[in-house]
Specification:
The structure is a single chain. With 91 residues, the chain is mostly helical. The chain has a domain of 54 residues. Helices cover 53% and strands 7% of the residues. The chain is built from 3 helices and 2 strands. A two-stranded parallel sheet has the order 1-2. The two termini are 27 Å apart. This is Alpha/beta-Hydrolases superfamily protein. It comes from Actinidia rufa. GO terms for molecular function: hydrolase activity. Keywords: Hydrolase.
Length: 91
Amino acid sequence: MNYLQGTNDDIVDLSHGKRLWELAKEKYDPLWVKGGGHCNLETYPEYIKHLRKFVNAMEKLSFTKESKSRLAPTSSITESKHNKCLRFGRR
């Protein structure tokens, strides 16, 4: 989970953002933009830099997973549907 939040966010308290990040199962370095508000983070250069770094990391992760899935045995359509339902807790 990537978390980006301004320290002066007047909508979502910074403590909530930090707690969400702490509870995330998969973490990515958070960015707490000093002085940033709720709707102006894109005006901070460090936000753009961090977001670009995050997107690049996710692209690499996606490429790695895609490569591994090509090596894994393929399952039937029925198995895929069944697994998908179980993953989201549907029956």
